[in-house]
Write a structure and sequence with these properties.
By secondary structure, the protein is of the alpha+beta class. The chain has three domains: 46 residues, Ubiquitin-associated (UBA) domain (Helicase, Ruva Protein, domain 3), CATH 1.10.8; 113 residues, Elongation factor Ts, dimerisation domain (Tetrahydropterin Synthase, Chain A, 2-Layer Sandwich); 74 residues, no CATH class. It contains eleven helices and ten strands. β8 and β9 form a beta hairpin. α1 packs across α2 and α3 crosses α7. It is elongated, with a radius of gyration of 25 Å. It starts with 7 loop residues before the first helix and ends with a strand.
Length: 278
């Protein structure tokens, strides 16, 4: 049993440093005989235990931050997830997420795992997340991370930090980048063009098309060559709806995104990433 007197001032100091609750701070200091640094470690260990207990909880809410380096050559999207929109809308939590995104940019990290090891104020982000978990009582973490490099990268945050988009272009074109990011946020294309659609996505779409055609009485007895052409047409319709360059431009439906890019100086999209909550 500790004989050290734990003052209200000590408890408040630990609370300010960690964000943990008053009773948790009192217990941490009692358990560690008033050792401030040991008490911080004790709270972190409690946070890890809470994380384990909450491993089956779904963290579908959160904050998505998208931003670029000062030279717009590299962009990052970071999603810090939590369980409730009450927490996700809290200004302190939004600021916490922003600090992590800032650290991603400042350290040019390549993955969520690397970001967790980055130090903010001498403390690993993974430990800061555990501290935050302990203080708010919800499962939180870096649930999504994307990074884009290109001659020019635009970033866009949609819907009060509920979605983030990065667009890589072959040349500097801020307005084009903004327009494309909004297009991607609204229309959620699967790829830049038909050639860049993943093979598994194409195969799945073909299977769906053929299965639906088998179920269509109008297709019964049709020559195989005709069925093949109809299926190809349906697949092309999929590419038109689901690939960025073929989609109708949301700001002017009379032209495609590809047409818009040509009229804007033949700008080319090299890559894009879209991260949304859920």
């Amino acid at each position: 049993m500790s004989t050290v007197t734990i003052s209200a001032q000590d408890i408040n100091k630990l609370r300010q440093a960690t964000g943990a609750g008053m009773m948790d701070c009192r217990k941490a200091l009692t358990e560690t005989n008033g050792d401030f640094e040991a008490a911080i470690d004790w709270l972190r260990k409690q946070g890890q235990k809470v994380a384990a207990k909450r491993s089956d909880r779904e963290a579908k809410e959160g904050v998505v931050i998208a931003q670029t380096t000062a030279d717009n050559k590299t962009g990052f999207v970071v999603c810090i997830s939590c369980e409730t929109d009450f927490v996700s809308k809290n200004s302190d939590f939004v600021a916490f997420a922003k600090s992590i995104a800032d650290a991603a940019v400042a350290n040019n990290v390549k993955s969520a795992e690397e970001l967790n090891e980055v130090l903010i104020g001498g403390v690993k982000i993974a430990d800061l997340i555990n501290d935050k978990l302990a203080s708010i009582g919800e499962k939180i973490g870096i649930s999504k991370f994307e990074r884009v490099e290109a001659p020019y990268v635009s970033s866009y945050i949609h819907g009060a930090n509920r979605m983030g988009v990065l667009v890589g272009l072959d040349k500097e074109a801020p307005e084009v980048g903004k327009d494309l990011a909004m297009q991607i946020a609204a229309m959620n294309p699967v790829a830049v063009d038909a050639d860049s659609v993943p093979a598994d996505v194409v195969a799945r779409e073909k299977d769906i098309i053929l299965e639906l055609m088998k179920q269509d009485p109008k297709m019964a007895g049709k020559p195989e060559e005709m069925v093949s052409k109809i299926a190809e047409g349906k697949l092309n319709a999929f590419f038109k709806e689901q690939t960025l360059l073929a989609q109708a431009f949301v700001k002017d439906g009379s032209k495609s995104v590809g047409d818009y890019l040509k009229s804007a100086g033949d700008v080319k999209v090299t890559v894009f990433k879209r991260v949304a909550l859920g």
